[in-house]
Amino acid sequence: MFCRYLMAKRNIIKKKGEIMKQICYIILFFTAFFYACEKDVDSYEGESGIYFDTEGKLNDTVVVSWGMKAGDVVTRNLKLRVMLVGTVADYDRKFTVDMISDQTDTLAAEEGVDFEPFDKEYTIPANGAYADINIVLKRRETLKQRSRRFTVKLNETPELHFMYTRRSRIDSLTSLDVDYQRVVFMDENFPRPGWWTREGQKRFGDWSQTKAGLICDVMNIDREVWLGVLGEGTFTQGYLSYVGKYMYRWLQENPTKDEDGEWMEMGPDSQD
Q: Are 185 and 235 in contact (CB under 8 A)?
């Protein structure tokens, strides 16, 4: 009986020893882990970089759809934010950008025509973490026939490196650094609303961007509302009927050609 007691006690002591050994291993592991993290942080200190704010974008392109703006809106301010990654400094740090518009590109935008000339040197201020590039875009009539684009590209400096970017895969062998440049793409796209086929055709006739834009401009309809859900607020079937009849009379007094060169017409339900 006494022997059994000694053996049981020895087993308990042995198990306690194994538990203590495991605890020691865990402590050693986390000590090494935090030491490694601390070394990484230390090695990161003093380095800084710049990149374009992602702003939820999946690629490097900023799409500016002028078609979503009223026809009398001919300029628009575009802000591109450049972010700091790394250490904030107590002094100003400068960087530059390049404007790239390849004239061999059939969609190449022209500085001074499609957008106003803008500064190419910027400053991340002391104790600051970003700088804004402000560009005034210009709406050309020819956008209806051809879109325009240009690229704003960041340049590294001895103090501000390329340290962070997302990568976009072009094909199985090629990928692109997304956040060191922004491609500004401008068009006149004004999509057809979902309600047009059922409710618009009979009131407004065949769809065209030119016709839809004219209706919104004459009737002072916000284009976001025009593309919204029919039946929300005052944007109802009854209102569409009123708009169709008003535009029919307006076109009688102001004949206007559609984008196909033919005279613009309203649908049969509006011609009475």
A: no
* Other beta carbons within 10 Å of 175: 12
Is residue 143 within 8 A of residue 31, CB to CB? The reply is no
Alpha helices (runs of H) in the chain, residue ranges in sequence order: 2-44, 201-204, 209-219, 223-226, 237-253
pTM recorded for the entire structure: 0.73
- Summarised one tens digit per residue, pLDDT across range 198-236 is 999 999 999 999 999 999 999 999 999 999 888 877 889
Q: Given 2.60.40.2030, 3.30.1330.40, 3.60.110.10, 3.40.50.720, which CATH number is that of 48-187?
A: 2.60.40.2030
For the chain, which residues make up each domain, given as ranges?
Answer: 1-45, 48-187, 196-270
Dihedral angle, C-alpha 221, 227, 229, 232, nearest 10 °: -20
**Token representation of residue 141:** 């009539």
Give the whole-angstrom CA distance, residue 251 versus residue 219: 13
